[in-house]
Design brief:
The structure is a homodimer. Chain A contains nine helices and nine strands. With about 210 residues, chain A is an alpha/beta fold. In chain A, the strands form two sheets. In chain A, strands 5-6-4-3-7-8-9 form a seven-stranded mixed beta sheet, sandwiched between helices. A two-stranded antiparallel ribbon of chain A has the order 1-2. In chain A, helix 1 packs across helix 4 and helix 2 packs across helix 3. The termini of chain A are far apart. The structure holds a DNA duplex (24 and 24 nucleotides).
DNA sequence: TAGATTGTTAATCGATTAACAATC
DNA sequence: TAGATTGTTAATCGATTAACAATC
């Protein structure tokens, strides 16, 4: 058990955002940046940037600021982009296919190992150079391949069943796209992507705006 | 300008979650629920539930709790599920198609009016009974159809260009799926869906967990 | 009426921001 | 050295939780 002080989830959630902005700066050829400059670009306070980064270590230098490439690599390490995670996609519908084609994932250390579906229409198709396998073959597949993460893109009612199945096969992380708070009786990390929640927040904001006009 | 006290975005973001849990309770045929019972189901405090709901009004009754159907409808109203929003999807790739087939959106008051793409391979296809139109026809389309929201499912570099275009045509809300913080010089509400940020948070948590074993 | 549970105020906790000494 | 900017402590702010009087 680690003795480090607990880092709040608010900080963790900001890390990928820092990573994106640093990547942009790198592409622009910018070598160094102060917390002040970065705060202006990101629309947050310089104080927050320095506090956030100092949860993980002193990456900057007084009087100079931060070396963009160094900071980019450090945040990448914290986020584990250099640790590779093998993942599978369950459900080869449009969402599953969209994720299978998401080229960014490779760059972040996520390696697509397999795509599974139950539909005979989809099994055998090739998506991003990977053949869709029948869900029934997942058992034997998982014996020959270490799978860290499963992305669940199956219909609502199937989601808990499939989650249970993959958890028992030893998958350690689930990325859930069904509009439910997935809970299973296994020690697995679950991230829920609630697209319709996000859209409803947009709807709320639009309604508020119209009201105040 | 409204004189109501400002409701925090933390509260707003919880509303769709309440709405989902109430929908589940309705389906289970449960007529009434106390903040205590709901708090156990949702894994939050009863205090938070009562505080959140009282931002919008007193929906409960002392000694009784909350009527599930009534509360469901009230939260629905707050979220604007009865106000219809017309939306279009730009980009008929896998993500665009996934969203076009998302049947939940209808139920929440979001009406798909059109799908646009530039690729001649996709234009003319039918998705969820809607024909994919060429992006070049968007101008005239928007003259004949009131569009509230545009969902942007186009490649990274195209995103700001397309966002600018639809904002000038009068679209009031943007749902952005590109891994960037979209900013445009128009008075438009933007919700960003950062899928790879979410996945990186999952990766971080997995790394932490492995470290602490 | 007695019991239950809300609505709401007050207390606590945690996250954000400000300030500044350390130091490059 | 003087100027700039970090790392870090202290102050502030806001969100969450606890407590309880009101009331169904």
């Amino acid at each position: 058990m680690s003795l480090d002080k607990k880092i709040s989830v608010a900080v963790i959630k900001r890390l990928p955002r820092y990573y994106r902005y640093l990547s942009d700066l790198l592409k622009l050829g910018i070598k160094r940046i102060s917390s002040k400059e970065l705060s202006i670009r990101m629309g947050i306070t310089a104080s927050q940037i320095r506090q956030d980064l100092n949860c993980f270590g002193g990456f900057g230098q007084q009087g100079y600021g931060y070396n963009v490439e160094f900071l980019y690599n450090e945040i990448g390490n914290i986020l584990g982009v250099n640790d590779n995670f093998n993942f599978i996609i369950i459900g080869a519908g449009n969402m599953g296919r969209a994720l299978a084609n998401y080229s960014n994932f490779d760059k972040r250390g996520f390696i697509l190992k397999g795509i599974f579906d139950i539909s005979p229409n989809l099994v055998g198709q090739t998506i991003n150079n990977i053949e869709v396998l029948p869900l029934s073959s997942l058992d034997s597949f998982s014996k020959n391949n270490k799978i860290d993460i499963a992305m669940l893109c199956v219909p609502y009612e199937q989601t808990p069943i499939v989650a249970d199945k993959v958890a028992r096969l030893g998958v350690k992380g689930l990325w859930n796209f069904s509009p439910m708070d997935l809970k299973i009786p296994y020690d697995v990390i679950i991230e829920n992507v609630h697209l319709s929640d996000s859209l409803m927040v947009l709807g709320y904001k639009l309604t508020e705006k119209l009201k105040n006009l």
